[in-house]
Specification:
about 110 residues, single chain, Alpha-Beta Plaits, alpha+beta
């Protein structure tokens, strides 16, 4: 079960929180793009991990974790990520929010680290 969690993150670090509602359009390309972006993000300097979930109604939350705000800016400017952002605005999402937060404390349980 813990494979769905980004583990061993030591604060402080940053979380990019992306709650979103899928539009239902272009499901096959959306899934493929998501897998590609998750792989590409892992190679970005400052990347720490990712957690993501989606319900049957298309509401999802993805949280990516980063060492610095500069690392987040570099990921936002990545060419493949920029293309996906445009596709998301035009086709993939009915609505989304994006929030960036600095994590000062973190806890886990019941098994912990």
């Amino acid at each position: 079960m813990t494979e769905r969690f980004a583990l061993n993150l030591t604060p402080p670090y940053y979380a990019v929180i992306f709650p979103n509602q899928r539009s239902g359009k272009d499901e096959a390309h959306y899934a493929a793009a998501g897998e590609l972006l998750a792989e590409l993000a892992q190679d970005m300097p400052g990347y720490l991990g990712l957690e993501s979930t989606r319900d049957e109604a298309g509401f999802g939350i993805t949280i990516s974790y980063w060492e610095t705000e500069e690392a987040i800016k570099n990921w936002k400017a990545h060419a493949d990520h920029l293309a996906a952002q445009e596709k998301g605005k035009s086709d993939w999402y009915a609505h989304y929010e994006l929030r960036v937060a600095k994590v000062e404390r973190a806890y886990s349980g019941p098994q912990g680290r």
